[in-house]
Every structure is written in C-alpha cells, then in structure tokens.
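for the record, two folds in this file. i put them one after another cuz i was lazy. first one right below, seq on top, structure tokens after. the second one comes after a little note so u can tell where it starts
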Amino acid sequence: MSLMQQVQLASLFQKNLEQCEVKPGETVALLTNLNTPRDYVAAASHALKELGAFAFELGFSSLPDPSRVAADGITGAEGIMSALKQCQLVVTFHAPNFASWSRVLRDAGVRIQTIIDGPVELEKLLSPPGLKPAVLHAAELWAGAREITLLNEAGTELTWTRGELRVKSQYGFADEPGRMDMWGAGHITNCPDEGSANGTVVIQPGDMWILPFARVVESEIRLEVRDGFIRKVEGSADAREFRHWLDRNKVSEDDMDPYAISHLGFGLHPNAHRDYIFHVNAQLNRLTAAARVYAGNFLFSTGPNTEHGGTRSTKGHIDIPMSDCTVLLDGKAVLEEGRFTDERLVVAPTF
C-alpha cells in the first residue's frame, strides 16, 4: 500500500471512529489476529491518536475460521477480560458474533466495533446519513409485530411469532455503551420464538449463500419447516450441500440444532447491491457486509440464537440473503418483492 493509500485509509478509519463517538482520554483495545492487515492496525492506531484516545493491541494467537461462528480465544482468560472491561471501546478485526466474551464486555458497558471488510468496501459502506434512523425505525416496526410472514413468488410461505428474543439492529458504528456494531452494516435481525416457525422456504437461483462460503445459488433449495426446525431439504446440487453442511455440524445423530431457524431480518444499506458478488468474484472478505445488508434483501439463516438472547450455540450456521421477498408484519407488508413500503426505511445512496 502506497503512502497516499495509507493516509486515505487512516482518514477513513478516523471517520468511522468518530461515528463511534470516540472521545479524548478513552481507552481503546484493538483485537487482532494473525490475518489482520497491518495497514488496518496502523490506520486505526493513527486515527485513535488523532482523536486523543489511548490505544493498545491484543493479538489472538490463532486464525479465525470464516466458516464458523463464535470466534473465541479469550473467554476464561480473566486477566485479559479484566483489562478489556476497563476499555470504553474494543475494535475487533474478526467477527465477535455469538462469542461469549463479547456478551460479557457489552454487559459491562463496553462498545464493540467490528472491522473485517476490504478497504474498497469500507469506503463504500461507511454509514451514510439517514441509515441509523432508518435501521432503528425498522427495528421498532419489527419489535412491534407479533406474527411475521415471509413470501416469494417461488413458493416461500413461512410464518413465525416473535417476542421472546431481542431484535438486533446494526447501522455501522458502536456509539452507545454496550453496543456492538460492524463497519458496513445496515440491517436488522431477530430470531423466532422457539418452535414457532412453520411453512416452506424456497431459495432461488440468484440468491446468495454467504456463510460458510460465498457463492451464488445456482439451483433451487426447497425447505420444509415445522415447529422451528428444517425437516426436509429438497433440490439438486445446492440442496445437497446445504444438507451436508448442517449434517456435519451435528454433535450427535439426533442433534437438530443446526437445522433450527436462526436470525431473520432485512437489509437497508443503499450503497450495497445484490450483484456485487459478480463484481468481486465471490471473495468472502469483500462480501461479509455487502451481501447481507443490501437494501431490500431478506437474510434467512439456520442454527444458533445466542446472539439474540437464546441458548442454542451450534456451529451449523448458514446465512442466505434472499432477493425479491415480501415480508408481512402482523399482516401488513413492510417489504413487497424486495421494495420497502415505508419511505422511512429508504435511505439515499452516496455511492
């Protein structure tokens, strides 16, 4: 990276950290791993210095597996956790979702900001004006609903109730005590009440598979859901791999947790687009945020629910951003074939 690019990156990091409300005198920890770009560490360190904060780096001695959730390495390390609890902000360069240490820190009032996308994506997806209020409005609408229905023209008709688990909202920056967010985010998610999801989900060719790997779905995947779990997976090549991934994450023959319906929600980011996967050739490190947050996508997932307050911690997690879906909140459409019906959910693009 040239000197000019390093300066630009530092300026970009400063903008995001300003969004995170970093104040002079705050203590900030940088959680790195063996794959963290040193340019990112330098940019964050310089930006934090410019903002008057005190920063230190804590390096994980392992490589995070992008196909797995709950990156860990410090749970149980009381000395490290004690130090992190004294910070106002933790910047992590690997995903902390579903990790118990992130919940402990948030409960202590520590803000957590995740930075894992490529520099081009960080620039494009820097939270634009209007995204935060739109995301919070979406979260309020979702939280106010009791029954939710997902539809698409391919035959999807999935209904569930909600209220047991919290709605998670992310708009790109951790600006409040106990908040965890991600640079590039712009979406809401929530898990169904236990055992309440029933119906059919049809994942269509052209939808995306973004965890445990990045690819465009090429053949229909038809799922039969009953009492909160996927009971049947039908289709050809993509369906076989869908089933294989969940099966190999079972801890016993009768373990159904990988087949549970996990977080469901939609994206609102105006600078992300459904065709981006074709531009970057399915590079996972360039799609971590972009594929999940493009405005109007419905994010369907399987497996764990601990991030939303549940107890299921299976590694059998799949994320599928679906396009052209309709979502009904207590019978009223909030999303119609991928387009929002509420103007307060529509954010003007800046790229």
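(here's the note) second protein begins now
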Amino acid sequence: MKKKLITLFITLVVIPVGSVVILSDIAPFPPTEPMPLMPPKPEPRDGYQLFYSFARNGEVLDDSFYYVSTKRQVIYRYDADRYLELQGENCSGHIWFHDDKNNIHTLIQKRFYTAYDLPKYHYYNPGKQYIAIPTQNLTDFAMSVDGGRHFITARVSPMAAVPGDEVDFFIGVDDSPIEDTFFDPIKGDIPLTISGNTGYFVLKNGEVIFGESYRYNKIDYGHGLKMYPVYYPSAAFSDKRIKDGSKFGAFSHLMDNQEYKNRVESIKHIQPEPYQGWDKIRCEVGAEK
C-alpha cells in the first residue's frame, strides 16, 4: 500500500513539477508584463493627407507621422496672382504659397502652423523675390528668396523675439545688399553682408527688428537646380539693446554702418500703401473647403 502511494505521488506531483522546471529552463515562460505595442503603420485616410515629421537636422522621421485635412482656405493675398492657402482645419495645418501667373505652387511642409502661430499684426510683403511668412510670437518665420519656389525656416534670436502684440506691422522687401567688413582678432577680416531680401518687424514703440546675418550658406535644392545663396537671418533690435544683449560683435559693428542706420530709420517711417494685397492674414474656423 505504501509503495502504491509513493508511486502515485511521484506520478502526480514529482514528475509534473520536474517537467515544468526542465521546460522552463529550455523554453522560459513569457514575462507577466505586457509586451510593448508595435508602432502603428501609416494608412490612407479619406479626406486627409499623410505627412512625416522632420528632425531638427532636416531629416525625415519615418516612424513619426501625422494627418492633415485636405480642406483649404485662402488666408492671404499678395496681389491678384499670388496668395497663401492654409491646408487643414480649425486654422491649423500647412501653408501653401501660390503664384498662378508663374505656375508656382509650394507646400511649406517643414513648418506646421496652429491658429496661435498665425500673425495677428499687420503684414505686408511687396517684395517679389523675397517672401516671408512671420509667426505671432516672432520665434521663427518661413522665407523664400526665389519668389516662393523654395522656402526655409529662419529662427529669430531670443534677444529679439517679442510678443506679437508689441508688433505694429511686418514688411518684407527686395532691398539691395549692404556690404561691410568686421575685424575679428582671431579670424581677421570677416565679410559682413545683409541680404538684399529682408524682413522688418516694426514695433509699436518705433523700434525695428531687422533680419540680418553676416554668415551665409548655399543650399542645393537638388534635382539639377542651381545652388542659391541664402542668407540665414538672425533678428536683432536696431537700438542699443543689440549692444547690451548680443554676444556677436559683428552685429554691434553693424550698427555703426551708416547705410544700415539710414535703412532702419527709413523703415520706421515707411508707408506700405499703396499695396495690392491684404493688410493681415485672415483665417476663419469652419471656412475651409
């Protein structure tokens, strides 16, 4: 009887437990924690366009995507042929630049605009080659130097960024370049150039925030297109705050350039009229079609 009980115990307990131990060493049981979810894959959606996000270095992030409604509304007109369209809903999305006369239709994909980003101050852009689209908080703006065929985003230095309610108006013009030379104790003479395509933020107190740069880079747009010289602007105040707050000696030196002084002073009193376009960006929630 005792032997039968031992045999039964071995059969019902020892052997199953031993088998479990052995099998767990060979093929471990899955952990009790839930497996991480796989990232969703982009799929077409009716009425929406799929976009991929961009990294800071300009690279496309294949695993980061979002959808924007294909509905649009015209939010600004430069003249009868050139205008801006916002693609999206609730005044948020991507901006298209159109020039029907020259068959230019450019999507500004690297910048997503929300209703808060669209400027509420007066906006004029009589320039033909220089097209700039500022933002409400002046942190950055999209700009083109080839009539809207290509756009880049230009950052505004923290020293110059101010709330949009301090801005009277923005005006983008096709200026002639200003050339100068800045002497650096280490690098020697450095060419200092203000691009001939410039945007000016004129504040309500009369100050001017002026887009400028003494460095320039060439952008190869690819597809056999020529390399365009593009001046990446930093924005700087025209008053003494540039000397107090800027660590870049070239900017301080620029303020001693008489041609620069004359240009900034003239901008303070510029009359944007007569102007064929709208005086503000207009976007109405629910007006998109």
